[in-house]
Design goal:
It is a multi-pass membrane protein. Helix content is 69%, strand content 0%. It has 208 residues and is mainly α.
């Protein structure tokens, strides 16, 4: 006797497997495991973003998903899960993944290049820049924030200062000691601006 599968359960399974947050968390885990294995033989440089930033070029992306250790991975995964789940409700898989990668890469570059201005050769590893961007997006894209900002009608210069101060506050409040503060700040700022502009908005997702 064969057991018939539950169509609703199958649909939920397919929906979960195609969830951009689940896909991102899976990529973070897989790439982090590979980077930890590589670090055993001294090849973590194949995953971390460091100057010169295009040698090797793939570190622009691998550095966004790879993490220094389980604790680092877990802390970023929690933020991605919480903030990313909210963002994913009103956007597409493609836009979510593009936003995550682009903000992560730009945040990493900001950290590396800022350190270079002070003569420091710094490398960066982890999803924190992208995670801060997701948090910033949630904060500025929600209806309450939009309603307040629309009523205030602030001048462009004031908005720029407000974004910088908000990004700085997020960085100070939620960054661990010794972390990539410039990457966190850059990610938060990009997320706040993108949220205000509703760059990821694609309409509510229909149930599977």
């Amino acid at each position: 006797m064969s057991l018939a599968s539950d169509p609703r359960r199958d649909r939920r399974s397919r929906s979960l497997s195609r969830n951009p947050v689940v896909e991102t968390l899976a990529a973070m885990l897989v790439v982090s495991l590979l980077s930890w294995a590589a670090s055993v033989v001294g090849l973590v440089g194949l995953f971390a973003l460091a100057p010169p930033v295009l040698l090797p070029p793939w570190t622009l992306v691998t550095s966004v998903y790879a993490h220094a250790g389980p604790g680092h991975l877990l802390s970023n995964a929690v933020v991605v899960l919480l903030a990313g789940s909210l963002v994913s409700l009103t956007t597409t898989r493609l836009r979510f993944h593009a936003f995550f990668v682009v903000t992560g890469v730009l945040a990493g570059l900001a950290h590396v290049w800022t350190a270079g201005l002070f003569g420091v050769r710094a490398g960066v590893l982890g999803s924190s820049g992208a995670a801060f961007a997701l948090v910033g997006y949630v904060l500025s894209a929600n209806p309450a924030s939009s309603a307040v900002l629309d009523r205030l009608r602030l001048p462009a210069r004031v908005v720029v200062v407000a974004v910088a101060l908000a990004a700085l506050a997020l960085t100070v409040l939620f960054s661990a000691p010794g972390s990539a503060l410039v990457a966190h700040f850059a990610g938060a700022a990009m997320g706040l601006v993108a949220g205000r502009l509703r760059l990821l908005r694609a309409g509510p997702r229909r149930p599977a």
